[in-house]
Amino acid sequence: MVEWSRALGGVPIHLHAADSQWVMRADPAVQFWEGDTKPIAPGLTLVRLGGHFDGGTVLHWADWSEGRGVLLSGDILQVVPSGHVSFMWSYPNLIPLSAAKVQRMAEILEPFAFDAVYGPVSGRGQIDANGKQVVAASVARYIARISETKLGSNTTSV
Question: Which residues are CB-neighbours of 115 under 8 A, at least 6 positions away?
Answer without folding.
Answer: 65, 68, 69, 70, 129, 130, 131, 132
